[in-house]
Amino acid sequence: MKDPKIAGSKLALKAIDWVAFGKTIPQNQRAVANSLKSWNETLSSRLAAPSEKPPAIDWAFYKAIVAKVGFVDDFEKKVKCCAEFVSLPKYRIVEYKKQLEKIKNMIPFEQMTIEDLNEVFPETKLDKKKYPSAN
């Protein structure tokens, strides 16, 4: 059973030469051809714009039609594992963007004092308990 969304996206990849198509259509069928063209443009624009969230998978449907027992359950576990794996980089990207903003907004290194450096990057502050002789 083919998913109509997938089949539609494959068809949308082929461009239609509407000028050549219009020359082959009889005059009395131009209205039908124009409605076909507008419908094609509507579908093409829908397919071109990706959705924010992919449609949810109906696992019960696949469990009902797949003959091999446990296959769908195993596949469902793998899909959930992949979804978790994909979400991890998204979190890191947010953290890296915060760090980048912090770096963009700080004063230049050439103008920094040691106190400024320790304030911006607290991890570089010298531990006086660990290194008491350093000033």
UniProtKB/TrEMBL annotation:
* Keywords associated with the record: CF(0), Hydrogen ion transport, Ion transport, Membrane, Mitochondrion, Mitochondrion inner membrane, Transport
One GO MF term on file is:
proton transmembrane transporter activity
Q: Its GO biological process terms? A: proton motive force-driven ATP synthesis
Q: Which Gene3D superfamilies match?
A: 6.10.280.70
Q: Name one Pfam family in it.
A: Mt_ATP-synt_D
Which PANTHER family does its entry note? ATP SYNTHASE SUBUNIT D, MITOCHONDRIAL (PTHR12700)
UniProt-recorded name of the protein: ATP synthase subunit d, mitochondrial
